[in-house]
Write a sequence for this structure.
């Protein structure tokens, strides 16, 4: 790269020298040509496989030459007098690292060149002569004008300013003034301030990591600010500079704060991250930090990943990226620990009653280990050669005492993983220790994460090791497979001793499970079938049987484990897509689950898995559905009587609460009739507040009929905006009729509104009470007054006999891309499934597809054209994917039978969905 920089400097010397009497403004084209040539040079080097750090350094060198030329031109235009000033690069530019679109941060350092708040003429001319051309050239420039004392004051007032100044670099001007500045910053801002600075940096780091996912394995990682990103790498060097005066990795290695192997890993990771960020900037033309899924294929291709399939290309690239992010995260945390920067770990909540007050130092050696200041240290370098079972026992000691591994002990484990061989994995004593670790309710995740961070967990369970840094292509997942699994375990731990919802509601289930280790093991294994076939649950169950054999589990435990793994998606799928009032559904769940204990474990598994997939996708509605399915299945195991009692108790409790808050003009008799006219599922999933709203709408609707107010077929609607949940809730009361659901869906789409979810109920007196959660399709915001009024007008027209051209109204809508954007070249595939076992009299049709405006209307219109009646529906839209379920029967009654008829329906549905793409190639959720 030295050769490249020499070429840049030679080019600058020949191109940027101005003819006599010409200014930079006169010759701005000359500077544009220079930048264009150098940008092309660096892009070609990048495409040829150039390393990340040298390219960023070359970019900084090109800007250096430009700025020095502008400084010289400004001085020449001002008569050539050099002011007592220097131009200083700070921040990332000060490090000499610039990605293609990164900001350029400058400090105009001066001595007595500002008077009365205004720069003196010569100094002001230089400032303008540098800044204005840079802005005209389209560069993003940040700048400050300060004296040395002002720099010191700013640095000591703000940690970020201090950090920018310790990375400063002289560019041009008064070199002695710069040296004075650098010495003053070191003496007055760095010396003696290590504790204060490092504490602020660690606090900032914690906030930053939490903001960007607290994981180095996010599906859309932030390469600058996320865990293991460039900021973590830089943070380490900043703190090491303050604490030990070591500002480079070589100096850290020399001081034995990192090993040679760790230095190599950090250097490779730093270079890879810079190269990936450069590719992101080239791909988007802007200073992007988040590696979104929509640009991952293009970035991967830029970096030399050539697999033809975008999915395979993504998988290979992202796995490498995750390994580098993980290395930065783990090594920087280890060095922080070695530098004594991290606070001591606290005892996990689940063990507070069992762990005695921690002593500062434990002098005696216990099984080859010392326990000092919250850390476990090895008593000798041969602790594991003497007894390799200690590799497992050391994690049990840490779990029991609430201690963490000392950094040197963690490194020792990494270096001796060859001791974890086949005999070790089959060792009965090792197995007992491992299962003991899994049996500590509420205190498992931290220990398994510690095992994973030193790569011990994947060595002991090779099946899990295969999942390390494996991308999940499902659009709703936010983590890699290994990280998702560890977060599942954390979510289950949170249930123990939880005091707040939603976790607290599950504490009783976790408390009464006789074999908690079995549940934790199931969570650990549940996604191991990923990447091995279409149905990862079945593949995972087979893997669990092999693991059971190796762990020596008895037949009953092995069978229970296989059932948990194979059915880990069962409860969430049934609760959110099936009619829970249908006894056939409950019987099918009970048959698959087999025992009440497995049901309890599977309910906990479902909750933990759902929360770990994305806590933003879990809500009270889904929680109530899961509990409803759980209680109904328990009641079936108990003979069914409990189900009746549970429904009666729920209904009575709801009745009392609604009576207290209902409108004054609604009588108790109306309330009783309302509840009696609706199925039990209504009482289970509706809070009292919503029941009161439904009751008020029904009361108004019936009053309109009695009073003869308007057209009796006109609906009554109610809107409730919920900005904290990101949608508006619309309730509609009207007479039920054939095709009602389709007309409702069409009206929403025609008004430019997107349906996120829907609940459809019809009272026994034929009054429909439907609830929809909606947003504006064009921007994802809550509906304003205009679209509300438009929807109500369209709906009243269509329900009172008027004609509405839904296709024309939907086609006119202007929409943006949905919140989720698929990989370039890949969409969420359309899948249509028929199930005649989900109900004795109806057929369940499930449709999963890419979200499109008008989708729900198109599906319902197609079903109506096929003479199919929709008796119930479950509508769900999450992160741009539609997952809708429809219970249908033939117009004359009965299920959809025969492959030909189902094929006809599937073909019609696919054709209806494809027609939407002609109107809106990529849109927001269809109503």
């Amino acid at each position: 790269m030295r050769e490249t920089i020499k070429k840049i400097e030679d080019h600058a010397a020949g191109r940027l020298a101005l003819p006599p009497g010409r200014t930079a403004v006169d010759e701005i084209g000359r500077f544009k040509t220079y930048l264009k040539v150098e940008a092309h040079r660096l892009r070609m080097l990048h495409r040829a496989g150039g390393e990340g750090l040298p390219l960023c350094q070359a970019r900084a060198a090109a800007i250096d030459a430009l700025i020095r030329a502008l400084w010289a031109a400004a001085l020449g235009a001002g008569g050539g007098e050099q002011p007592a000033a220097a131009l200083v690069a700070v921040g990332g530019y000060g490090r000499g690292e610039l990605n293609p679109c990164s900001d350029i941060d400058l400090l105009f350092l001066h001595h007595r060149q500002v008077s009365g708040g205004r720069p003196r003429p010569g100094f002001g001319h230089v400032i303008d002569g540098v800044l204005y051309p840079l802005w005209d050239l389209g560069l993003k420039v940040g700048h400050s004008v300060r004296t040395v004392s002002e720099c010191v004051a700013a640095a000591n007032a703000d940690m970020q300013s201090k950090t920018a100044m310790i990375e400063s670099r002289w560019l041009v001007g008064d070199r002695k003034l710069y040296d004075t500045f650098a010495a003053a910053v070191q003496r007055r801002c760095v010396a003696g301030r290590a504790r204060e600075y490092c504490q602020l940096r660690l606090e900032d780091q914690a906030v930053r990591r939490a903001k960007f996912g607290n994981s180095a394995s996010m599906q859309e990682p932030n390469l600058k600010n996320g865990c293991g990103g460039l900021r973590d790498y830089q943070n380490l060097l900043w703190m090491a500079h303050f604490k030990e005066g070591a500002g480079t990795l070589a100096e850290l290695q020399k001081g034995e704060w990192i090993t040679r192997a760790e230095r190599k890993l950090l250097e490779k990771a730093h270079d890879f991250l810079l190269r990936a960020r450069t590719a992101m900037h080239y791909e988007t033309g802007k200073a992007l930090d988040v590696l979104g899924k929509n640009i991952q294929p293009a970035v991967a291709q830029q970096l030399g990943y050539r697999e033809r399939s975008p999915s395979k290309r993504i998988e290979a690239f992202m796995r490498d990226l995750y390994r580098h992010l993980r290395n930065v995260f783990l090594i920087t945390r280890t060095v922080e620990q070695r530098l004594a920067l991290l606070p001591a770990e606290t005892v996990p909540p689940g063990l507070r009653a069992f762990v005695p007050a921690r002593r500062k130092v434990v002098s005696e050696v216990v099984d080859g280990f010392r326990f000092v200041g919250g850390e476990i240290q090895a008593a000798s370098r041969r602790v594991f050669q003497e007894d390799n079972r200690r590799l497992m026992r050391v994690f049990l000691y840490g779990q029991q005492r609430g201690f963490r591994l000392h950094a040197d002990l963690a490194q020792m484990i990494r270096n001796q993983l060859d001791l974890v061989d086949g005999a070790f994995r089959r060792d009965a004593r090792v197995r007992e220790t491992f299962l003991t670790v899994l049996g500590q309710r509420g205190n498992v995740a931290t220990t398994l994460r510690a095992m994973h961070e030193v790569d011990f967990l994947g060595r002991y369970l090779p099946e899990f090791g295969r999942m390390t840094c494996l991308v999940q292509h499902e659009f709703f997942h936010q983590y890699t497979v290994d990280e998702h699994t560890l977060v599942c375990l954390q979510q289950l731990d949170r249930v123990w001793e939880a005091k707040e919802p939603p976790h607290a509601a599950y504490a009783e289930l976790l408390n009464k499970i006789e074999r908690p280790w079995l549940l934790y093991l199931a969570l650990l294994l549940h996604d191991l079938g990923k990447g091995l076939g279409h149905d990862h649950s079945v593949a995972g169950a087979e893997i669990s049987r092999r693991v059971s054999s190796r762990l020596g589990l008895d037949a009953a435990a092995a069978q229970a484990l296989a059932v948990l793994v194979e059915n880990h998606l069962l409860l969430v799928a049934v609760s959110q897509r099936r009619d829970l009032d249908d006894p056939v559904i409950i019987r099918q769940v009970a048959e698959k689950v087999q025992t009440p204990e497995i049901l309890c474990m599977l309910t906990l598994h479902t909750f933990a898995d759902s929360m770990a997939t994305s806590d933003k996708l879990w809500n009270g509605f889904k929680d109530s559905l899961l509990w409803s399915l759980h209680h109904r299945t328990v009641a079936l195991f108990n003979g069914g009587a409990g189900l009746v009692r549970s429904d009666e108790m729920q209904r009575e409790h709801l009745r009392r609460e609604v009576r207290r808050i209902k409108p004054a003009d609604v009588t108790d008799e109306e309330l009783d009739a309302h509840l009696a006219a609706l199925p039990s599922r209504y009482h289970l999933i509706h809070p009292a507040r919503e029941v009161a709203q439904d009751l008020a709408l029904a009361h108004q609707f019936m009053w309109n009929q009695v009073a003869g107010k308007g057209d009796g077929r006109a609906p009554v609607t109610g809107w409730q905006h919920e900005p904290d949940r990101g949608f508006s809730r619309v309730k509609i009361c009207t007479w039920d009729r054939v095709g009602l659901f389709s007309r409702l869906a069409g009206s929403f789409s025609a008004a430019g509104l997107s349906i996120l979810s829907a609940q459809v109920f019809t009272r026994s007196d034929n009054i429909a009470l439907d609830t929809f959660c909606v947003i504006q399709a064009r921007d994802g915001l809550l509906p304003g007054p205009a679209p509300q009024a438009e929807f109500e007008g369209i709906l009243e027209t269509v329900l009172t006999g008027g004609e509405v051209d839904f296709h024309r109204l939907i086609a006119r809508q202007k929409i943006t891309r949905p919140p989720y954007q698929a990989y370039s070249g890949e969409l969420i595939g359309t899948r249509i499934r028929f199930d005649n076992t989900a109900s004795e009299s109806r057929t369940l049709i499930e449709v999963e597809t890419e979200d499109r405006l008008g989708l729900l209307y198109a599906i319902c219109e197609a079903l109506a054209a096929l003479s199919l009646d929709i008796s119930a529906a479950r509508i769900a839209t999450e992160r741009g994917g539609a997952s809708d379920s429809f219970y249908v029967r033939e117009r004359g009654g009965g299920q959809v039978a025969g492959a030909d008829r189902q094929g006809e329906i599937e073909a019609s549905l696919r054709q209806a969905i494809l027609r939407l793409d002609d109107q809106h190639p990529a849109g927001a959720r269809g109503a």
Notes: The radius of gyration is 33 Å. Confidence is low (pLDDT under 50) at residues 344-363, 816-826, 921-927. Residues 681 and 896 are 25 Å apart (CA to CA). Residues 310-338 form the longest helix (29 residues).
